[in-house]
Amino acid sequence: MRYSVVAVGKAKAPYADDLGHYSKLLSRYARVDVIEVADEEAVVRRLPERAYVCVLDSRGQAYTSEAFAGWLEQRRQAGVDVCFAIGGAFGIELPSADHRLSFGPLTLPHMLARVVLLEQLYRAHKILANEPYHH
Predict the structure, then answer these.
(1) CB atoms closer than 10 angstroms to residue 23
(2) For 133, what's the count of Cα atoms within 13 Å in the CB-facing half-sphere?
(3) Whole-angstrom Cα distance, residue 123 to residue 38?
(4) Does pLDDT of 106 surpass 90?
(5) Separation of alpha carbons 15 and 5, rounded Å
(6) CA distance 60 to 21
(7) DSSP state of 88
(8) Burial status of residue 57 (CB atoms within 10 A of its CB: 0-12, 13-18, 19 or more)
(9) What is the pTM assigned to this prediction?
(10) Is 58 helix (H, G, I), strand (E, B) or coil?
(11) Which of 6, 38, 52, 79 has a CA between 20 and 30 Å from the CA of residue 45?
(12) In the 8-state DSSP scheme, what is residue 102?
């Protein structure tokens, strides 16, 4: 499976270290392309064609880790790549998105949301592979 993460802003320490860590762990299960852009307009321009677009939004659908793994598996079964869009400090409005994903009602800093996304993708693949995960 292939994921794209199109996100506003360039990751710096300590987030860059965490992103690198989870990208490396996740590479065993899926290809992940992280595309850093300058602003919301650039996010729209960099969305891959024919990808299932999921925007991170505190008002979106929240899942347990197991349910999120099931959601990803449904996309994989459908044969679609998933692109996650993450706005900057003020979020992003993306009316054309196929889905809105929330990590809960709290508003997370956009760089932290990026780390949480990669960690949850890794966790989901461990769940789908019936492998333990205790990080």
Answers:
(1) 16
(2) 18
(3) 29
(4) no
(5) 15
(6) 27
(7) B
(8) buried
(9) 0.94
(10) strand
(11) 79
(12) E
